[in-house]
Design a protein that fits this description.
Layout: H1 2-28, H2 38-48, H3 54-57, H4 69-91, E1 99-101, H5 108-123, E2 130-135, E3 148-151, E4 154-156, E5 158-160, E6 165-167, E7 175-177, E8 181-187, E9 203-204, E10 212-214
Parallel strand pairs: 1-3
Antiparallel strand pairs: 2-8, 3-8, 4-7, 5-6, 9-10
Helix pairs in contact: 1-4
């Protein structure tokens, strides 16, 4: 599964970081200068500058991990533990009742594609016949389809309570958390879908908007 692959990639990342840190400690603390290759010296310089070495961060969805080293390491370990819990919950079929933060995935687009494949299998159809949708009221989902309860979404420059949206005031934070969003794929027989009442809003992985997860 996609989650199992993410757990394996997280383990590889942790092992790589541990090895690099061990080499740096041997070179700087134990005085074994021969072990300090140019690559390690670059990593040391980046760490001194307070940023995550690129050789580490490139393993996190091609550089989309936290730039702060302390946060990078804590989030790496935390997300691996969350993914392990997801895997157990998928096996005992309790996963679909959980509120899921897609941001805990290292590769959220891959995660959603796996969800699309799962839906296609359940509905005995092709992925091309499925359309991604989300609603704030779960009762609006009329089809019997797998649903993800998405938590951890924030809106920038507005306040949204699940029904109404309004602009923020000078007293409000620039980012505000939105209620649980229900995402799913439904089968579309007619390619010209009626989108009346729908609003396309891009969802990004981080504030720099360099990585769009979905609309």
């Amino acid at each position: 599964s996609a989650i199992l692959l993410e757990i394996e990639k997280a383990s590889l990342m942790i092992n790589k970081v541990n090895k690099e840190i061990t080499k740096i400690e041997k070179g700087l603390i134990l005085g074994n200068g021969d072990i300090l290759t140019p690559i390690l010296m670059d990593e040391i310089q980046e760490l001194i500058s307070g940023i995550v070495p690129w050789n580490w961060n490139k393993l996190w969805n091609k550089g989309n991990g936290p730039s702060n080293p302390k946060l990078f390491l804590s989030e790496l370990i935390n997300r691996k533990q969350i993914l392990k819990k997801w895997l157990i919950q998928i096996k005992d079929n309790t996963f679909w009742k959980l509120n899921i933060c897609v941001g805990n995935s290292f590769y959220p687009i891959t995660f959603l594609n796996a969800f699309k494949q799962y839906t296609a299998h359940k509905m005995k159809t092709t992925m091309d016949d499925l359309q991604f949708e989300c609603v704030w009221d779960k009762n609006m989902i009329v089809d019997n389809v797998p649903v993800l309860n998405i938590d951890g979404l924030y809106i920038e420059g507005g306040l949204f309570d699940g029904q109404n949206i309004k602009t923020v005031s000078s007293k409000d934070n620039a980012l505000s958390k939105v209620p649980i969003c229900y995402v799913y794929y439904r089968k579309v027989n007619n390619k010209s879908v009626n989108e009346r009442g729908m609003i396309k809003i891009p969802v990004y992985y981080s504030l720099d908007r360099s990585y769009k997860v979905f609309d």
